[in-house]
Amino acid sequence: MRSGFAWTLAGNGLYAASQWAMLSMLAKLGGRDMLGEYALAVALTAPVAMLAHLNLRAVLATDVAGQRRFSDYIAVRFGVSGLALAAIAVVALVFGRSAGMAAVIFLTGLAQTSETVSDAYYGAMQRRDEMDRIARSMMARGILSAAAFGMALWLSTELAWAVAAAAAGRLLVLAVYDRRMGSRGEATDWAGTKWAGARSILRQALPLGGVLMLVSLNTNLPRYVIERRMGVGELGAFAAVASFVTAGSTVVNALGQAATPKLARLASRHEPAGFLRLASKLGALVFGLGLAGVAGAALLGKLILTLAYRPEYAAYTGLLVGVMGAAIPGYLAAALGYAVTAARAFDAQVPMFCAAALICGCASWILVPRWGLAGAAMAMALAAAAQIGGQTLILRHAMRRLEQPE
Known about the structure:
Elements: H1 2-53, H2 56-61, H3 70-95, H4 99-127, H5 131-156, H6 159-183, H7 195-230, H8 232-242, H9 245-268, H10 272-308, H11 317-342, H12 349-371, H13 373-402
Helix pairs in contact: 1-3, 1-4, 1-5, 1-7, 1-8, 1-9, 3-4, 3-7, 4-6, 5-6, 7-8, 7-12, 7-13, 9-10, 9-11, 10-11, 11-13, 12-13
C-alpha cells in the first residue's frame, strides 16, 4: 500500500500542480476577469460531469470478485459520457453570455468528460494494484494539457483556444495510453457485452454519481453566489486562493485511492476491526495534513500568493488562512468517503449529500453577502461538518453489517 500511495501521490501531485499552473497562467496573462470566467465555466460544468462520472472507478476497483465484465463497465462509461456532453452543450447555450463564453463552457465540459473516461480505465488498473501506470498517465495528462493550455493562451490571448488545447492534450493521453493500459488483461470482447450487466452497473453506480454531483455542488454553490453577488473578478480571486486547497486534496486522494483496495478486501472478508483501524489511520493522517496547511498559509501565505499570481493577490492572505482552515473538515469528509465507498455503502450517501448541499447553498446565500469571500469558506466548512456526521452514521451501520458472519 505504501508503494501505491507513493505512486498515487506523485501522479496526483504533478497533475494538481499542472491544474494550478493553468490558474497561475490565467492570472498572469489574462487577469482576474479571465480567471473568473474559467472558474465559472468549471463551476457550471463540473456538477454535470460528476453526475456522469458515477464514481465508476471505485465501483470497478472494489469489484474484487469480478462480478461484472470490464466491457460492461466501459459500455456504461461511454454511454453516460455521451449523454453528459449533450447536457453540457445545453448548459453552454443557456449560460453562455456570448459565443466565446459558450465555447469555453462546452470545451471545459469536454475536458472534464474525457477525464471521466480515463478514470474508468484507471479503475481496472487500480483493481490490479497498478498504481504506477495510473500515476504515469496522470503525469503525462497534466504536463501535456498545461503546456498546451499555456502555449495557446500566450499565442492567442483567447481563453477558448487555451481550453481547447488542454482538452486535446487530455484526449490524446486517453487514446494513446489509458485505453491500452486499462484494457490489458481484461475482458474486452465487445460482442460479449451484456446489456443486463451494464444496466445493473448503472443502477449500482448511479447513486455514486449523484453523490459526486452533490460533492461538486458543495464546492461550487458558494462560487455561484460569489459571481452573482460580487462579480466575476472576485470569483477569479476566490478560485485562485482556493486552488491551494487542492494541494492537500492531492495527498488525501492519494491516501484514499491507495487504501481503497485494501479497505475493500477487509470489507469483503468481514473484518470490521481491521477496516476501522485502517480508516482511523487515514483520518488521523488527513487531520494532521490540514493543520499543516493552516500553519503554512499563516506563515508563508503573503509570499506564496505574490509569487504564484500577482502582487495584488497578497491582499487575500487572510482569506487563504481561512480557506485552509475550512479545508480541514473537507479533508476529513473526503477520507471518510473513501471508507464508506470501500464498504460499498452506496445508496445511503445520497440523502446525506443532499442535506450537505442544502446546508452549503443556504449558508452561502446568507454568509457571502455578509462576510464576502470569507463567508464562502464558512459555508463550505459547515457543509463538510454535516457530511462528516452523516458518514459516521453510515459507517456505523456498515460495521454492524460486517460483523455478521459470511
